[in-house]
């Protein structure tokens, strides 16, 4: 189960003044295990459940920035935020030998029923409410520079160069998608408004209650990005679960909530479909990295499906009838 002994884990938890009663490998954790080198639920003598996480090498400074950001958003009253705990000396991250650790409260939740969740309207309202709250509470985050936002345009250009060199067999499926984006989106990208984003919002990065969000997790990619980034990634992931869900109640209620909250701006109306497509290149890169051939095939089919039905999606979502790129 673990390459760490109970004694070692107990000694680490002592930095937070916590005494563990036992390790709880029976408790499944939400979110990606790749965000940590090791993680496990620990039950304390007081019956409290805490998640002890070992930070991957070279990531402790970034994890510290995430913790500082989450604590700030928590102080600003954004619901669904679960900051890591400070140690007895006030630190988010504790070093022990050559290893770095953080401690986070364990939050129980309800598992998603797949793929039924992708059609449940209340989830769209909850996710839309979170994104509205994030936009309101994340102004002037001091730990990031809005003048240097993430660029999916540059990412795609670099990705295609690597693809031609290492995976040329994927070019017949990806080059039509790139041509779709080059009709106007790539040129317009750098002028898109910027906002602070979670960076990986999708339903599997949420700890769900019975009818709402208990916590939003996995903030590894947080930072300033084009303002529609989280919306585009979320909708793209819903459609990847089931393309029919793009026309379902979850997405419809998400749009209604975001529109009422002022997040469906002019640039969003014009370029959202293209941004959804653009972000799928990052997911394709992930499947290629993992050599997951089934997901590579599904992703490229999905990317081309989105481009072919771009006009239908704009009409369904009440966006601009046609982007400046056409389609």
From TrEMBL:
Q: Which domain of life is it from?
A: Bacteria
Q: Which residues form the signal peptide?
A: none
Q: Which terms are listed as keywords in the entry? A: Transferase
Which part of the chain is the Aminoglycoside phosphotransferase domain? 44-254
Pfam families under this entry?
APH (PF01636)
- What are the TM regions of this chain, as residue ranges? none
Q: Name one GO molecular function term.
A: transferase activity
Return the protein name: Aminoglycoside phosphotransferase family protein
Q: Which organism is it from?
A: Desulfonema ishimotonii
């Amino acid at each position: 189960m673990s390459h760490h002994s109970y004694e070692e884990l107990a000694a680490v938890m002592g930095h937070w003044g916590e005494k563990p009663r036992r390790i709880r490998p029976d408790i499944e954790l939400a979110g990606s295990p790749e965000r940590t080198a090791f993680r496990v639920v620990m039950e304390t003598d007081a019956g409290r459940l805490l998640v002890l996480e070992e930070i991957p090498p070279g990531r402790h400074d970034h994890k510290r920035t995430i913790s500082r950001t989450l604590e700030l958003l928590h102080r600003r009253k954004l619901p669904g935020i679960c900051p890591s705990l400070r140690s007895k000396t006030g630190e988010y991250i504790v070093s022990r030998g050559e290893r770095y650790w953080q401690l986070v409260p364990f939050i129980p939740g309800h598992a998603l029923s797949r793929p039924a969740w992708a059609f449940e309207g209340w989830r769209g309202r909850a996710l839309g409410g979170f994104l509205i709250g994030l936009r309101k509470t994340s102004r002037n985050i001091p730990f990031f520079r809005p003048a240097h936002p993430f660029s999916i345009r540059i990412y795609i250009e670099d990705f295609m160069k690597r693809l031609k060199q290492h995976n040329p067999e994927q070019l017949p499926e990806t080059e039509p998608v790139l041509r779709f984006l080059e009709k106007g989106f790539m040129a317009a990208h750098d002028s898109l408004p910027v906002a602070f984003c979670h960076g990986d919002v999708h339903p599997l990065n949420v700890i769900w209650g019975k009818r709402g969000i208990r916590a939003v997790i996995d903030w590894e990619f947080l930072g300033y990005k084009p303002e529609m980034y989280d919306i585009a990634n979320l909708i793209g992931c819903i459609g990847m679960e089931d393309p029919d869900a793009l026309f379902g109640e979850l997405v419809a209620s998400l749009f209604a909530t975001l529109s009422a909250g002022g997040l469906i701006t002019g640039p969003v109306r014009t370029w959202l479909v293209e941004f959804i497509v653009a972000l799928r290149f990052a997911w394709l890169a992930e499947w290629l990295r993992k050599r997951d051939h089934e997901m590579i095939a599904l992703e490229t089919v999905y990317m081309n499906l989105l481009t072919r039905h771009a006009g239908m999606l704009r009409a369904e979502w009440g966006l601009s009838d046609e982007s400046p790129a056409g389609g």
